[in-house]
Fold each of these.
Amino acid sequence: MLEGIRHIIEARWFELRNTGYIIEDYENEDIDFNCKVAKNNALEEIKRIMKIHKKKGAYVGCYDKIGNFDVDYSGDFPEDIDEYLVNLAKDIGGIGSTGLTSNPTNDPAKHENIVGKCAEFRLVNKMLKKGYSMGEFMLTKAYRFRKEGLLLVPYCPNCKYMFKDILDKED
């Protein structure tokens, strides 16, 4: 089922890339507009996929300055992790560790996240594998699906450290 979600996301990305949603004007005003449109498209895609699959876990989107966007969700480790991310993750304990979310005192209020399985990590990896460089795209906020609607998920300390320059800073 998860592979089905991935194929839907990738097919939607391809469809939108090839239907005129991508705007090739690089003026500052147009870049700002393109980012807003792409960010909105990414958020709409997250909502659409969540409604269909109601998968537990977090979803996050990304967008670039010319209007491209993509989404991903938390899950298994990516099969092929970009070397840049492998090295970045080493700063906080490496892929598979709990990184900065380590909870040695078993505090029930603190949640441990495994580096490499979150939606942000998986999406950044996907974008790097597509040929993007860090800084050429921004991440949206992360969301979880609940029957009441979308729940905003705060970035964990791991993502705040690794992706601080590309996280959505809007309130």
Amino acid sequence: MVYFYSGLTVLAVTVLLVVPRFRKRAKDAGHSRHSIHSNLSPKHTVKEPETEARVLLQTNKLAALDPANEPGIFQILDFKPGMYTIPYSAIQADDNGPIDVDSSTIFFVDAQYLEQFCDWFHKTGNEVSYDVCEIGNRLKNFNIEFSTMSDFILSEGLNTCFPGEGRYTLDLVKLRLV
């Protein structure tokens, strides 16, 4: 019992005397209370890059779809052929939006390849029991066959702009030609 109380006494003295000095030295060195534990001050933290899809557009029409439903077709104004990035934040919930999602995935393809993409998707989906991760892994086969670049975005979960099932639209202002 004596050893237990002695251990508590040493711990209490350490917490009361050493920790405040450590915090004071850290504060004097320009670190916040939170950065003491992370070895990085807030100005040195790294921001995660935003999830995005890349699609090669040779026409001014972008198809965005969950292949179980009708696609949303978007016309790109001031169009220039090339590779476009579609950031996750461009997906916006909209009860009347043209993208109807039953799964947690939106595929993006140049609309001129929409019919071929849907045929490929369902053929591949049947082969892999519609495992969206495996379909995503095989998407390069479609891209090679049609000399294009199509891509997809998976939902990042609740409390995001694309939580999964629902209707959506795209904020076309956020698309970037790269």
